[in-house]
Amino acid sequence: MDRIAIISDIHGNIPALEAVLSDISERSIKRIFCLGDLVGKGPHPKQAIDKIKNSCESVVLGNWDDWLTNRPDVEQEHALWQYQKLDKSEINYLKSLPFSTEFFMSGRYIRLFHASAESVYKRVQPHAPIEDRLAMFNNTEKTGIPPEELMPDVVGYGDIHNAYIQNFKGKVLFNVGSVGNPLEITQACYAILEGWYSRRSMSAFSIQLVRVPYDIELAIRQAQEENMPLTEQYANELRTAVYRGSKGI
């Protein structure tokens, strides 16, 4: 059987990303997909982009990736600081990322995106109204209409930094959590899909969520050494897995 590692929300946290990539390698998984937010929040956006480009077969756009390509204004010091660490080629790379990716696996039509089927900025929590969660399976202007007007059987996303798996009468919605800024427990998280890649006939299929410890204090020291804005808030999030505010991630 084939296995795909699905990672998301790196947020410039290199110790966390390296720990996850090492875990993926130890499992001999060769195919890695990334669901966006390579940059933002953490101290090393440039290095995160480089590692993702070299490691991942497929990468989709995240809200931070989109926001930074539009050059944040000077009133948003932390975002401007991130932007200034990137060169033109990296900005263009982020701009080039697609909204979503789709494929078959063991008879399931699978769609992956960052936040929702409508926008990289629309947030859908595991406790959202049922109609909002079911809307994640819709074909939209952003996702496009696939051949034969197929609707996904399985949808995976990132954005909320809160991993889960839910079933809706044969359809599966899952969140891969966050590599670089987990907000449940203080360990990086990613998902593994197992089945037969590209196969349209129904066969065995599974989704696994994986938690990976990493050196949190090293990640915090790196932010301090870079004199990153909002380092104190960032450090508190990494140490406690408690989000610093109530609006957006």
From TrEMBL:
Signal peptide residue numbers: none
Pfam families in UniProt: Metallophos_2
Domain of life: Bacteria
Ranges for domain Calcineurin-like phosphoesterase: 3-194
InterPro entries: Ap4A_hydrolase (IPR050126), Calcineurin-like_PHP_lpxH (IPR024654), Pesterase_MJ0912 (IPR011152)
PANTHER family, alphabetized: BLL5683 PROTEIN (PTHR42850:SF2), METALLOPHOSPHOESTERASE (PTHR42850)
Name of the protein: Calcineurin-like phosphoesterase domain-containing protein
Organism (species): Paenibacillus allorhizosphaerae
